[in-house]
Design brief:
The complex is a heterodimer. Chain A is 29% helix and 26% strand. Chain A contains 6 helices and 7 strands. The longest helix of chain A has 13 residues. The relative contact order of chain A is 0.22. In chain B, α6 packs parallel to α8. Chain B has 8 helices and 10 strands. The relative contact order of chain B is 0.20. Helix content of chain B is 39%, strand content 25%. Classes of the chains: A alpha/beta, B alpha/beta. The interface between A and B is large, with 45 and 47 residues.
Chain lengths: 185, 280
């Protein structure tokens, strides 16, 4: 099934998504990698103010290349999500409703997703040039000193992704492989 | 004795950093297209189609195929009848600095791995390997290496009694265990023999061989084919969404080793398998 989803991600929209669904995302996403996640969690633990609106937020795990003159952003494909796994559950409990990345997640992340109704989206790893075409604006909103790892607010249009893990915990990496081995070979 | 100014090395490295990152080489494109043509599972075919669309777009716009423009692995094959004037390592680093700067490539190197992890901001140092070969030319190869796939690489000191079956088991189980993380379809570089360090370097060098070109030794070529078939029966598929194309190719490099050992290293490369060379 293919969905066109408006971001920030509402609880209802998140609920309607099933592992394996194709989606086109339109709206606001924030970029963050390991270093920014570490700071987010430090801020939460110290009771500081988060630099982004967390309720319904979607975070894209990406460190783009520098933009060439005239470009909005450089190549911008997903990085491996597992490096964010130690931080993600706390952010999910604070309202984070979507993550865009690639690769496996830990059971702690999946449990937090199930409790809060969050979604893990997959973008094609290595398709940095193609995915950058869907990014219509980019602005650094926090941790500028982190360079490529700074937090950017992106406006995306028809950003192609698949639902890797849905809010019930179903995982395309498991089910897609099983389905292929049973029905595809 | 031919004299080559180190500046020539710098210029070649700078050009190759940009070319390798923005244009996939024909061998890799041929492998991806063959996988796309042979794939019947819809989500896998669609994913490979987007991967092709992406590298074509990158080449047209001269932008990086992938945002992880990697660490710069640089291989110099230096002719024994050549003298390079100036410091070679400095010349290579200067080439990386220029290439990653002028090419708007991402700077992804930290100067020290554990405590501060401060970005060097120019993607230096390069990881440089030099080798002496007959002749009076220098072949410069730049292979930018992303860490989604590098982090899934493995080395095991197998024992002689583990034999062919032990190698197959280790390679197939390693690729199976890495699942979607190294961005399949992957290139699988296998280094056999030598010492702990030599096996790892051979695995990396195996990734420099034109993708899909078999080992010159028919026994190793046969093993490459067998490994590829077993890996592509795992069902992981492009990006791990399910499908046939888990690997594009398997390349084995081997060398002599100790009577008591069978070192086996596996270096994975994502489908954005980058290598570019120039001869000076």
């Amino acid at each position: 099934m293919t969905h066109h989803i408006q971001l920030p991600l509402t609880k209802e929209a998140a609920k309607s998504l099933k592992s394996g669904d194709a989606v086109y995302l339109t709206g606001t996403v924030y970029t963050a990698r390991d270093a920014a996640h570490k700071r987010f969690v430090q801020l939460l633990q110290e009771g500081g103010e988060m630099p982004i609106e967390m309720d319904g937020a979607v975070i894209y795990y990406v460190g783009p290349t520098p933009p060439k003159p005239g470009q909005i952003i450089g190549s911008a494909g997903p990085t491996t999500s597992s490096r964010m796994d130690v931080y993600a559950p706390e952010l999910i409990r604070c309202g984070l409703r979507g993550m865009i990345g690639k690769g496996k997640r830990t059971s702690e992340v999946v449990e937090a997703m199930k409790e809060s109704g969050a979604i893990y989206f997959g973008a094609i790893g290595g398709a940095g040039a193609l995915l950058a075409e869907c990014i219509k604006s980019s602005e650094v909103v926090a941790f500028e000193d982190l360079g490529t790892e700074a937090v950017r607010k992106l406006e995306v249009e028809r950003f192609p992704a698949v639902v890797l893990i849905d809010a019930s915990g179903r995982d395309l990496y498991h089910d897609g492989r099983e389905d292929y081995l049973t029905n595809g070979k | 004795m031919r004299i080559i100014k180190s500046q020539k090395i710098t210029e070649a490295v700078a050009r190759l950093c940009i070319r390798a990152n923005c244009r996939l080489s024909q061998d890799v494109k041929d492998c991806i297209q063959a996988c796309h043509a042979g794939e019947t599972w819809p989500i896998a075919k669609d994913t490979l189609g987007k991967i092709i669309e992406n590298y074509e777009l990158a080449a047209r716009a001269n932008v990086p195929v992938c945002q992880d423009t990697g660490v710069a692995c640089v291989f110099l094959e230096i002719g024994e009848d050549v003298h390079i004037s100036g410091r070679i390592a400095d010349a290579v680093d200067e080439g990386v600095r220029r290439g990653y700067g002028e090419g708007y490539l991402r700077k992804s190197v930290v100067s020290e791995p554990l405590f501060e992890r401060i970005n060097t901001k120019d993607n230096t140092p390069a990881f440089l390997y030099t080798e002496y070969v007959p002749g009076d030319q220098v072949t410069v190869t730049v292979a930018p290496k992303g860490f989604g796939s590098e982090n899934e690489s493995k080395l095991k000191m197998l024992l002689p009694s583990d034999g062919i079956d032990g190698v197959i088991k280790f390679v197939v189980e390693s690729v199976a265990g890495s699942g979607p993380n190294p961005c399949p379809p992957v290139l699988v570089g296998v280094g056999l023999g030598g010492t702990f360090d030599k096996a790892a370097l051979l695995a990396k060098k195996a990734l420099l061989r034109p993708a899909g070109q078999p080992n010159a030794d028919p026994r190793y070529a046969q093993l490459e084919t067998e490994l590829l078939e077993k890996i592509n029966a795992l069902g992981i598929g492009p990006q791990g969404y399910g499908g046939r194309a888990t690997a594009l190719a398997v390349a084995i490099e081997y060398t002599a080793t100790h009577i008591a050992g069978l070192p086996c290293a596996i270096n994975l490369n994502c489908h954005v398998a980058r290598h570019a060379s120039e001869v000076i």
